[in-house]
Each structure stands twice: as C-alpha cells, then as structure tokens.
Amino acid sequence: MAFPFDNSYVGLPERFFAPQAPTPVTEPWLIKLNEPLAAELGLDVEALRRDGAAIFSGNLVPEGAEPLAMAYAGHQFGGFSPQLGDGRAILLGEVVDRNGKRFDIQLKGAGPTPFSRRGDGRAAIGPVLREYIISEAMFALGIPATRALAAVTTGEPVYREEVLPGAVFTRVAASHIRVGTFQYFAARGDTDGVRALADYVIDRHYPALKEAEEPYLALFSAISERQAALIARWLHIGFIHGVMNTDNMTVSGETIDFGPCAFMDAYNPATVFSSIDQHGRYAYANQPAIGQWNLARLGETLLPLIDAEPDKAVDKANAVIRAYGERFQAAWLAGMRDKIGLAGEEDGDLDLVQALLSLMQAQGADFTLVFRRLSDLAGNDDAEPAFAGSFREPETCRPWLAQWRERLSRDPQTAGERAIAMRSVNPAFIPRNHRVEQAIEAAVENGDFSLFEALLTVLSKPYEDQPEFAAYMEPPKPEERVLQTFCGT
Ligand code: AMP
Ligand code: MG
C-alpha cells in the first residue's frame, strides 16, 4: 500500500461531503515528488516513484483511499456564498505520520465535483508551481502552512485567459476544515452539523479542550489564538496571502490556499498583488484586521453552542474577538523585537520598531534585506555600509542606528548571540515574486523545470547564507518587477 490510509472525515454525516473520484487524464507526468515529506508521512516512497504520475494525477486511486469533496461556504471579499465546497479538490484520505499527527492528502485540480458550479475542476500549471514553491518555502521559514507532496502535468489543456497546460497539485494539510466549513452548516440553521463539526475539530486539532468547562468557547478562543500567531508570522516575513476569504482560513492555524499570494519586496504596508483585489481589502497591513473579521464570522456560527442564552453567547464571543486584537499585537511585537535583536523588553521598543518601518517605507527599502543586513551588522560593524545601502539615501538610517545601538547597550545578549538569533528569524531568501514568475514562465513556455528546482533548493534553507545563490537574495530590477498575481481559477 502506497498510503497507510486511516480516514476519519468520511465518517462524519453524509451532508458534510460528496463522495467523488478523481477524473482520469490522458497523459500524466510527474513534475516533482517531495520524497522527504513522503517519508515523514510514512508513505511508500518506492511505490510513489514508480506510480506517482498515475496516483497524483488521479488516474490511479490508491488502495484505502475514500475520495470525497468537502462541503463549505464562505465570505468572498465580504459577500457570503452559502455553498462553495471543493470544486476542484478531492480528499483522497488521511494518514497518521510517525509522530502520531493526522494529515489530509488532497488532490487539487483532479476534475469536477458536485461543488464545481461553472468551473472545470482543473488547475493550470502556473498556480500549481506557485503553490508548490510557496508552501515549501513557508515550511522552511518555520511558518505553519499546508505542504506540497507532488505536482504532475495532465497532458490536457485548461482554458483560462489563455490556453495553459493542466496540472494537479497534491497537498498535505493538518486538515482542510475552514471557517467556511462552519458557515456552511450555520447558514442552513443546522446546529447539529455545527456541533458535530466542532466536536470533530476539538478531537482532531485541540484534544486538550475536551476537558474544558466551556469547550466550544475554548475552541473559538484557541482558533483565534492560532490565527493571531499565524498572521503575525506572515507580517514578520512580508507575506501577503492575497485572498483571505473565510473559505481560505483554516481552523488548524495553517496557511492555506496559496492563490495569488506573494512576498513584498520594498516595504509598503499597502502592498497588494492579487489582480482580483481591486480595493486592497487583503493588502499586507490589512491582514490582521481581516483575520479578526473572519474570526467574528466563525464566532457567529458557534453562538448556539457557546451559550443557550443568546446575549451571553454574544458577550463571550465578543471577548474572544477583542482578545484576538491583543494577542495579535503581542505576537507581532514579540517577533519584531526578535527581528531587531532585542531579548529584553522596554516600553520604547514599539516606537523603535515603528521608526525603522517608517524609514524603510519612506526610503523604498527592501523588507527582507534590511533585516538580514541588520542581523549582519549586529555581529560585525563592517556590515554598516551594506545595511545603509538598503535605503535610497543611505545617510537617513544613521539616526535610527544610533537609537538602536543605544537600546542594545541595555539588552542582555552579547553581540555574537544576538547576531545568531537575528539570523535565525530574518531570512536571507524568500520566494521573490519575480523568481517565482520566471520559474513558472520557463515551465509553461519551454517545459523547463530547472528554475523551479533551483528555487526549491535555495528556499529550503532560507536562514543560511548560501553564497552560491547570492543572486536569489536580490530584489527585482525595475524591469523584472511583478506587479500583479493571478488566482488559479
Ligand atoms: P479558490 O479561489 O481556489 O479559493 O476557490 C474558491 C471556490 O471556487 C472554491 O469553492 C473552489 O473549489 C472553486 N473553484 C476554484 N477554481 C475552480 C475550478 N477550476 N473548477 C471548479 N471550482 C473551482
Ligand atoms: Mg479556496
């Protein structure tokens, strides 16, 4: 057996999903198998090498799989759709890894399902490669995210704005349960469904809460806490999700649905890449507030479970939503202290962080390089010209540096310890958007996956210097800059 399946979602009531097999394709070809991940999951790597093209295209449904499409709803750009669901994704089943952790194995782009509406159930190669690259980069950066197990081409065209090669992405997730999954049942007045889902989520993701006095309130609070921590981590590395609809927010706390997502180069809190986000709803700096808005929608679905008295339920849920704001702020500031090398805490730290960010914005400084070069500077005064060179007018950073050094003089760490700590949180390498686009273009135009492979190699060690790949640290030249990214739809 290639996969030691142990399926649980399929045991939930029938209205939670639609059984659905993948639709075979004409000429599957394996672009990539993530062998280390396959091994971690306890899969049969040999069998996957041999049959990967057939399995990951959906042509061969592995033994023990119980393929299904999950039902969910969601707010998309603020408007509610009571029925979305997996329109092009098929859950093959679940496996329990070597550490006893349960994971979903899902094919994305494996053909139509009862939730496809007008869609073709397929994915184009570009979004598949983007999701592969960025989810693995997130993993290496240490940020909770779904992972990439495999990518295949189908040998069939998909019709978008242009005709593109079709592909299927295999995703591994702690689960694919979304805020929108709760909304699906709540929108139908199906409180039993909401309760069954909440119980399942507690069992699978938050087992300690079974003992809680108010388990559903505790669940809401725990999900909020994970999202606060997650979104703070996004901001720390310049990540912009792009489509933070409630159907794209997990209850496990993993980043999911890498559509038009991208990393910011020059620091600007208003940065937006997604072609469909015309009003900047999901801009870089809006993400924490949108997280809170989405959690409020989750809280609404849980109200009947939180307290039998509606007013009390609302008060309790509101307290969680308020706490999210504080939790986010605390997580964000803690991470920013780490980024500038502060081990201790002082009242003025927030101002010091904000002064740097304001300067970076005014001076068009690259978000990633500033912090990496500051890490170098922490251990070596000779690195100051490189740091200053990140700013359009290098001299403008001197007053901030003086403040920073003055603050460091009162901080407990030695310079050597500080440099090491800073380098472990400030990456040298991120999936720069122009590099991602170049890798996709080479694959689409020439069937050349060497840039895709090179990017995966570089991004697997984002906190190491890797001098042979120094060019991958560089921001785009003006002519290389990518201003827009597109969804997979
Ligand atoms: P996404 O934009 O990928 O988060 O998807 C939003 C909704 O549209 C989900 O219900 C998807 O399953 C559905 N969807 C996206 N693309 C397709 C497609 N090509 N065919 C069918 N459904 C799709
Ligand atoms: Mg989605």
From TrEMBL:
ATP binds at residues 85, 87-88, 108, 120-121, 171, 178, 257. It comes from the Bacteria. The active site is at residue 247. Its EC number is 2.7.7.-, 2.7.7.108. Its cofactor is Mg(2+); Mn(2+). InterPro entries: SelO. It holds the Pfam family SelO. It is an enzyme of class 2 (transferase). Signal peptide: none annotated. It catalyses: L-tyrosyl-[protein] + UTP = O-(5'-uridylyl)-L-tyrosyl-[protein] + diphosphate; L-seryl-[protein] + UTP = O-(5'-uridylyl)-L-seryl-[protein] + diphosphate; L-histidyl-[protein] + UTP = N(tele)-(5'-uridylyl)-L-histidyl-[protein] + diphosphate; L-tyrosyl-[protein] + ATP = O-(5'-adenylyl)-L-tyrosyl-[protein] + diphosphate. PANTHER family: PROTEIN ADENYLYLTRANSFERASE SELO, MITOCHONDRIAL (PTHR32057). Belongs to the SELO family. This is Protein nucleotidyltransferase YdiU. It comes from Rhizobium aethiopicum. The lineage of its organism: Bacteria, Pseudomonadati, Pseudomonadota, Alphaproteobacteria, Hyphomicrobiales. The gene is ydiU.
